[in-house]
Amino acid sequence: MSVAIQPIDLQVLFSRLNEIGRDQSTLREAQAQAQMVAASEIAEQSEQLEHRVTQARTDEEGPEQVNDESGKEKRGSGERGTEARDERADDQVFRDPDLGQNVDVCG
Predict the structure, then answer these.
(1) Is the pLDDT of residue 81 over 80?
(2) Of 41, 44, 73, 80, most Cβ neighbours within 10 A?
(3) Is the torsion defined by CA of 50, 51, 57, 60 positive or negative?
């Protein structure tokens, strides 16, 4: 069962064609405008981050605490303090198993 379009319906559709076209172009421009606004906000935020100075955290342990602990062990009794210090020094030093195994002779 097919329904034919009446001539009056065609006249109404053709008269509204310009209005519908304007609405569609406005929607497309709104999407492009929203993207441009978002891009400018992102650029502004990244520029602010570049110029911001970050505060150093003071509650972190630094190398000075490690040196203080090794200084206390030096004051320990003789050989036992030296052995404990050497064991701790070996635990703290990271050794890469691949480091120093290959020699580049090409230059």
Answers:
(1) no
(2) 73
(3) positive
Residue 76 CB contacts under 8 Å (≥ 6 apart), including other chains: 84
How far apart CA 38 and CA 6 sit, in angstroms, is 46
- Tell me if 93 sits within 8 A of 104, measured CB to CB: no
Q: Which residues contact 70 (CB under 8 A, 6 or more apart)?
A: 85, 88, 89
> pLDDT tens-digit profile of 2-40?
788 888 988 988 889 999 999 999 999 999 999 999 999
Q: By the 8 A CB rule, do 81 and 73 touch?
A: yes
Cα 39 to the center of its chain, rounded Å: 17
Residues 6+ apart with CB under 8 A from 66: 92
Distance of CA 40 to the CA centre of its chain: 19
DSSP assignments along 20-49, one per residue? HHHHHHHHHHHHHHHHHHHHHHHHHHHHHH
First to last CA, the chain: 84
- Interatomic CA distance for residues 105 and 39, integer angstroms: 50
